[in-house]
Design a protein that fits this description.
The chain has 415 residues and is of the alpha/beta class. It contains 17 helices and 13 strands. The chain is 44% helix and 13% strand. Strand 12, helix 14 and strand 13 form a beta-alpha-beta unit. The relative contact order is 0.12. The model has no long low-confidence stretch (mean pLDDT 94).
C-alpha cells in the first residue's frame, strides 16, 4: 500500500453473476474493467457464472459453484459429492426453498479464495453482492462496493404486482438476501453508486449516511453503440430492450400503450430478447390482441443490435424504476429518439434529450409515442441531442477516472 497518488493500482473486482449481454451488473463489470485497464491500472476479476467474457488481457478467476440458474441445466439436482461441500449445500438448500442464495455463497467462496492472496491487491471492489464474505474482506484490505440501486424497490414492486398471498410470500423469500445486504452495507465507509437518485434512495432504504457515497455515472460503450445514418429509420417502428416479465421493467405498461396507439395509426414494437413461453408478457399480448404489432428478436449479436436501433423510429424505456438506465443511454448513443419514464435516475440520463412521462402510465406512454410519430422533425432533433449528451457526459473513461479517485480515498481511510 502506498501514498503515491500516481502509482497504478492493483484492483480486484468481484462480481457474483455478470452476464455481459444482459443486466446492468455484467455490462458494468465488462466496461469498467476495460476502462480501468486502459488508464493504466492492473485489474483482476473474481467472477461467478456465467463467463463475463472479458478481454483477454484482464485475468478472470471463475469460482466453481452449482450454477443452478444455468438455463441449459435449470435447477438440476446436484450429486452427493457436490453436496458434501457445505457451501454447495447452502446454495442448493437456498434455491430449493425458493430463495436466491448466490450473493451469500459467492461471498463465502470469494473470501476463501482471497484470504491467502490479499497481498496481491491494493483494493477490493465488490459489484453489489454485499455479502458477509465482503464484510470479512473489509476487515483485512481496503474494500469498496458498488450498489446500482436499492433492491428493496425491486422487492416492493414485485410483491405489489402479484395478488395471491402465496405468491407474495414467494417474492419475499426470493428477496430475503436483502437483509444481509443492508447489514453489510452499513459497515462500509465507501460506496459507489451510479446516480444522485440512487444515492438518495439507497441512503433512505438502507439507512446509510449519504456522505458515504461516491456518485460515478455509468458510461456508454460507444464502440458498440453508434448511429448508422445509411440505414433509414422505419416510421412507426419502436424498439424496447427488455423482454422480461419483471414488473420493474415496465413492459406490461408499454404493451398497453402500443394497444392504444395501434387503434389509431400503424405501429410495430420490436422487443430485443425472448419472452418466457406462455409467460405473463405473451399472455398479455394475446389478451390485448396486438400479436401482429409485436415481434421478439431473440438473442442477437452486437452488430445486429445496432442495426435494430438504426431502423427504429424511437426507443422506449418504460421502467418503473432504474438506478441508472443503460438502455436509455445506449439508444441515445445510436441517435435514436427516446421516450422514457421518470422512474428513478432516468431523468438524469435522458435530461432534455427525450420525452419524459410518469412511470406505470400507459396513456402517457401512448401520447408520447403519438407525439413523436406525428412530429418526425422533433424526433430527429431529440435523437441528435441524445447523441451529443452521451458523448459529453457518459464515457467509460470518465467513469474509470472517478472510480479510481474513490479507490484512493478508500485506501487512505483504511490506512
Amino acid at each position: 500500500m502506498t501514498n503515491d497518488p500516481d502509482r497504478p493500482l492493483r484492483i480486484c473486482l468481484l462480481s457474483y453473476r455478470s452476464n455481459p449481454h444482459c443486466g446492468g451488473q455484467g455490462v458494468y463489470l465488462k466496461n469498467l474493467s476495460r476502462a480501468l485497464k486502459d488508464i493504466g491500472h492492473r485489474v483482476e476479476v473474481i467472477s461467478g457464472p456465467p463467463d463475463p467474457m472479458l478481454d483477454a488481457d484482464i485475468p478472470v478467476y471463475r469460482l466453481p459453484c452449482l450454477d443452478l440458474y444455468n438455463p441449459d441445466h435449470l435447477f438440476r439436482m446436484p450429486t452427493l459429492k457436490e453436496l458434501s461441500d457445505p457451501v454447495n449445500f447452502m446454495e442448493w438448500a437456498g434455491v430449493s426453498t425458493m430463495g436466491f442464495p448466490e450473493p451469500f455463497t459467492f461471498g463465502i467462496r470469494a473470501w476463501q479464495f482471497l484470504r491467502t492472496r490479499m497481498q496481491r491487491y491494493d483494493i477490493v471492489h465488490d459489484n453489489q453482492s454485499l455479502s458477509y464474505g465482503v464484510w470479512a474482506m473489509a476487515r483485512r484490505i481496503p474494500t469498496i462496493v458498488t450498489i446500482h440501486h436499492p433492491i428493496t424497490i425491486d422487492r416492493r414492486i414485485a410483491v405489489q404486482a402479484v395478488r395471491s398471498y402465496w405468491k407474495k410470500l414467494k417474492q419475499l423469500r426470493w428477496f430475503s438476501f436483502i437483509g444481509m445486504q443492508k447489514r453489510v452495507s452499513r459497515t462500509l465507509k465507501h460506496i459507489i453508486t451510479v446516480s444522485e437518485s440512487a444515492r438518495q434512495d439507497i441512503a433512505r432504504e438502507f439507512r446509510i449516511s449519504d456522505q458515504r457515497f461516491h456518485v460515478v455515472p455509468n458510461g456508454i460503450n460507444t464502440r458498440l453503440f453508434y448511429p448508422i445514418p445509411e440505414i433509414p429509420r422505419e416510421p412507426g417502428r419502436i424498439i424496447v430492450t427488455t423482454s422480461s416479465d419483471v414488473p420493474l421493467k415496465g413492459l406490461y405498461y408499454l404493451l398497453q400503450a402500443v394497444a392504444q396507439v395501434a387503434r389509431r395509426r400503424p405501429v410495430r414494437l420490436v422487443v430485443v430478447g425472448t419472452p418466457k413461453e406462455n409467460g405473463g408478457i405473451t399472455r398479455l399480448i394475446r389478451r390485448l390482441g396486438i400479436g401482429k404489432h409485436v415481434s421478439f428478436t431473440g438473442h442477437i449479436s452486437d452488430a445486429e443490435f445496432v442495426r435494430q436501433y438504426a431502423r427504429a423510429a424511437m426507443a422506449v424505456v418504460a421502467s418503473v424504476y432504474e438506478g441508472f438506465g443503460l438502455p436509455a443511454g445506449e439508444a441515445m448513443a445510436c441517435g435514436v429518439p427516446v421516450i422514457s419514464t421518470t422512474g428513478g435516475a432516468l431523468p438524469e440520463v435522458v435530461g432534455d434529450a427525450g420525452l419524459l412521462v410518469p412511470p406505470a402510465d400507459p396513456a402517457a406512454l401512448a401520447r408520447a409515442i403519438c407525439d413523436l410519430l406525428d412530429h418526425p422533425e422533433r424526433a430527429a432533433e431529440l435523437g441528435n441531442r441524445g447523441y451529443q449528451r452521451v458523448q459529453q457526459r457518459f464515457t467509460w473513461q470518465h467513469a474509470a477516472e472517478k472510480t479510481a479517485q474513490a479507490y484512493r480515498e478508500t485506501i487512505r481511510d483504511y490506512r
